[in-house]
Design a protein that fits this description.
Maltoporin, Chain A; 5-stranded mixed beta sheet; mainly beta; 22-stranded antiparallel barrel
Length: about 700
Amino acid sequence: MPCPPLRNLSPPALLAALLTSAAPVAFAQSASAPPVLPPVTVTSESAGSLTVPTTDEAEQLLQRIPGGVELVPDTAFKNGPANTIRDVLGAVPGVITQPKSNVDNRVSIRGSGLTRNYGNRGVNLYMDGIPINTSDGLFDVFEIDPGAYRYVEVYKGANALRYGANTLGGAVNFVTPTGRDAARFDSRVDGGSFGFLKGQASSGGASGAFDYFASLSAQREDGYRDHSDGHMARGNANIGYRIAPEAETRFYVNANTWRQRLPGELTKSAALNAPRSADPDFVSQDQQRNIDSLRIANKMRLRFETTEVEFGVFSHRRHVDHPIYRYLDYTVNDYGGFVRATDERTLAGFRNRLVVGTTIINGALDYKEFENVGNAEKGALVFSTRDKAENYASHIENSFYVLPEVAVVAGLQHLHARRDRTDRFLGDGDQSGRRTYNLWSPRAGLLWDVDPDWQLFANVSRSAEVPTFDANSFASPASSNLKAQTATTYEIGTRGRRPDVTWDLAAYRSHIDNELQCVRTSPYSTCTVRNADRTVHQGVELGLGIAVLKALATPEDRTWLNLTYTYNDFFFDGATYTGNRLPGVPPHTLRAELLYKHPDGFHAGPSVDWMPRPFYADNANSLAVDPYALLNVKVGFDRGTGWSGYLEGRNLLDKTYISSAIIAETATAASALFSPGYGRAIHAGMRLTW
């Protein structure tokens, strides 16, 4: 798809350009008289479970949002080596997943948390609608077990207001099955290159008012690079109880353990010429990341005549044993609750949908740093703090249908957040401090159901993000006075489904004040966080599926061309680095797949991951990551029950490339900033379901 030069377009011109490009695709098969779309209600008859919508019901709910949203069903990622978050979200336009080593990935939506050197920020993650970010806003992807989910919802930007999320990137919700829609028994074994081996088993069932689902997985990997071996185990379980025909409660347990050696980053020359090597300092210090976590939660849904109410509580404990250039040892204890209500009724003859909610996420971080005297051994204590975070977010959104097929949407969120630090190691001075933030974020949009399978949407919204604990270090005036990142985003797009074509197309432009940048200042530091004055993030997101060939072997088979294209035009627009590109993300990414699908379950085809232009690793735009293209092929068989299996080859031409870069102010050829991508890899798996 040719990409227009968007940088110099005003938001209205940007929106008009998108509509002009989108309309011919949609009008070709539009209906003359669009029918009224019925309200979406999760019912006991259709869903089985009141607390968890089915995949179809979840997709219908997403169609009520006037902005970029996606639903990824499990059929999109379970017919392959579903090992990392990239295997789940890699084909969602606008989502950047950059592998570092093993399961660790940088995750960004529309440039959110773009410069995080470790951990992730700027996206709210949920499991079954319950928050899993730490109370200060960070999230870890190791807790995401792709084999455990029924589907995944992606809400880009302020389109995540349904859950009260209000970050630049939006939200991702991972939804597990219940005993009312899960297989009685489901097991699989996956193996592949670089010592990868994974086993997973799950079971679900229902008896009267009770139902249950449980999944357990374990995996190990030697790693593509030296000093990158690791292993983990993850468990997910839920138990539901139907209190009454219109009331259900569900309890959740999620437990994880991860042991991972870290290979570190390399210079550009080393990453391209010795990609399997590790940073010698990481090896001598035996740098690792070891995490144990336990999450317990409950939610309940009550249904009245025109109103549904959902509320819940949760607690989440993580212990992190993390020898790097220092030995980090800390425990995070988070807790909170939420309530959300949806009322859908007719007002003066017009359909109306009102959503209100409140979320509380509080927590404490017991944090200590020791000297790493080598070989991951603790030395003397050098830093100790007790950090507390409080977050109280309330939101309201109303959709009023001025015509049966046209909704005017307005919403508002308020966030009250506080960050407290108590310094318990005073040998280097007292670095205690407190910051309080009160942030308002309005939203307005339009949603037009042109026909039951085609929509147009537009919106304008605000977002706000509070600095995390590592940013508000209170060690200097700069770190004590970090401002919240705020943004105004304009978006327009279209989505549709036809028997032989599907599309999702959106364009957006975000004007950001005080973007939180995490930049490397020395080899022996994680990063320094600062506000980056004014920046602009804008782009185009395209997901397209076309049945290019039909009836090759049977009347029902199809050969699909699936395209995912993301255009990122991110640049500085303030006093510092004016006109330079923001580092860390390529301007263009394209994933193309040609997949033959037989009605009996056989599927096969090649795919390409292509980054056609370089991106920078520093704000000064002095060092770039080179373009690359990767060839992949897969073949598999899956009828939904019984035996299924696959064989998949990735990077079959063994291309040497850089998959991820940490960010510096000004980089040189000697800057160790780069993580090499995996070389040629072959994976295979077998699955048994009944």
